């Protein structure tokens, strides 16, 4: 077990299986020293635990937990192309999309779910740049979607 996966276990988390693509793309792609994930939905065992807009059918607190799940799914996607999460030198960028009710403006707080998980797992290497974007709708009516970009250590 890698040190990163041991840290996940300390947090009471298990790295899930990679979420299969919903269309014509790969869950993650490596380019040089970087891995870019596709947008990860908060899938748990092949299903969305909740659907709808944040600020309407989904509370901000629920959405924050869902963003955490998205980040965990992104780590699974990173591992699928690196073989070992200990190769992550740093998390560079997180981009999050929040399906928002028309008057909801708390997207940054929702995306803290993903950012905080990455910090808990990687420590200082998990500190990253981030964008939090409110959108009308996401695939499968998911409340949140997260992309992660990481830099790898030398092999």
Automatic annotation (TrEMBL):
| Name of this protein | RidA family protein
Taxonomy of the source species: Bacteria, Bacillati, Actinomycetota, Actinomycetes, Kitasatosporales
Pfam families in alphabetical order: YjgF_endoribonc (PF14588)
Q: Which residues form the Endoribonuclease L-PSP/chorismate mutase-like domain?
A: 5-147
CDD domains named among the record's database cross-references: YjgF_YER057c_UK114_like_1
SUPFAM superfamilies attached here? YjgF-like
Q: Which organism is it from?
A: Streptomyces luteolifulvus
- Report the domain of life of the source organism: Bacteria
């Amino acid at each position: 077990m890698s040190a990163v996966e041991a840290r996940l276990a300390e947090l009471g988390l298990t790295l899930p299986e990679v979420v299969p693509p919903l269309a014509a793309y790969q869950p993650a792609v490596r380019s040089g020293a970087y891995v870019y994930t596709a947008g990860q939905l908060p899938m748990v065992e092949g299903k969305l635990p909740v659907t709808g807009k944040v600020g309407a059918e989904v509370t901000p607190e629920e959405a924050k937990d869902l963003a955490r799940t998205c980040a965990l799914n992104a780590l699974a996607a990173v591992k699928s192309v690196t073989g070992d999460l200990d190769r992550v030198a740093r998390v560079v960028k997180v981009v999050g999309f929040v399906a928002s009710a028309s008057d909801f403006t708390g997207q940054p707080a929702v995306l803290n779910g993903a950012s905080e998980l990455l910090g808990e797992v990687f420590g200082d290497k998990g500190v990253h740049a981030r964008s939090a974007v409110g959108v009308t709708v996401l695939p499968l009516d998911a409340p949140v979607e997260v992309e992660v970009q990481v830099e790898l250590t030398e092999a």
